[in-house]
Amino acid sequence: MSLQLPAVDVPPQPWTGRFDGDGPRHRRWWQAVNQESQPGPAEAAGSQGAGRPAPSVRRPAALLGFASDEGVRRNQGRTGAAAAPAALRKALASLAFHLDRTVADIGDVVVSGQDLEAGQERLGEALAALLDAGHQTVVLGGGHETAYASYLGVSASRAVQTGRRLGVLNLDAHFDLRDEPLPSSGTPFLQMARAEADAGREFRYAVVGISEPNNTQVLFGTAGKLGVRYLLDEDCEADRVQDFVAAFLADIDVLYLTIDLDVLPAAVAPGVSAPAAYGVPLPVISAVCRQVARSGKLLHLDVAELNPACDIDGRTARTAARLVDTLLR
Ligand SMILES: N=CN[C@@H](CCC(=O)O)C(=O)O
Ligand SMILES: [Mn+2]
Ligand SMILES: [Mn+2]
Measuring from atom 2 of ligand 1, which residue has the nearest CA? Predict the structure, then answer.
């Protein structure tokens, strides 16, 4: 597939990482990104003959950065998430590459100053173009205002415009359903609910990992009125989460998955604006990612709320990179 590059603010920068050698069996992400094709695992293992490129059998992935923390600033959080796309690429770069799809880095949309809304529009336009060109899209956020930017792209895509039922699955300690005069990292899913109502569509929104003490009764009330399905963090045993996600997937055609890294325990994900005292264990979140990847319904995914300035030894970025890698398997 030839890649029509959508307009971004900062073009893709060179990827670098540990070098173990040339060839597919040594390959790491930094050596695979923006290459025309990668062999599948079978060829990489040497079973299809040396040197012959195999066609990629999966939808090509496209990475798009959203360098923004204006939403976090407006939401009274700890800013720093604008630096997250670069930190996420760095964490991805040295992972061994086991995917049987190509990965293109498209570059970054950058929110300059306080013009969050314009940045969300630009991200949405670039994302819709990538989706309609057949890519498995991945947005590297940004504060959780990233989610409304993602939604603009997903809702404008041919899949949704031609009537496929969209579901939004949020892995998050928070509902992010705040009713505020200005959009922020705390408002994206209420913005989506209103936009879906305006479009005459049902808003299908589910959240895994809600922390009861970190969401007010007003937010639970809004979730109730909107018919939001959710699981509390304390109820996130592996089997229960699997059943919850399976039931949600059964009611939709295409999924937008958004991972707010504060769904994870603070020890695993300290580098966020609002670290979780309790959190959902990483193996449970990773299992959700595998379940979603296997479902065949994943249209788009993003990772949000990484704040590299608050991270400890890059552990939050590394965890996020691992989840992105899992989702693209
Ligand atoms: N992105 C959302 N953030 C949370 C922050 C909560 C907090 O700072 O305690 C929210 O708005 O609910
Ligand atoms: Mn959150
Ligand atoms: Mn959030």
Answer: 186
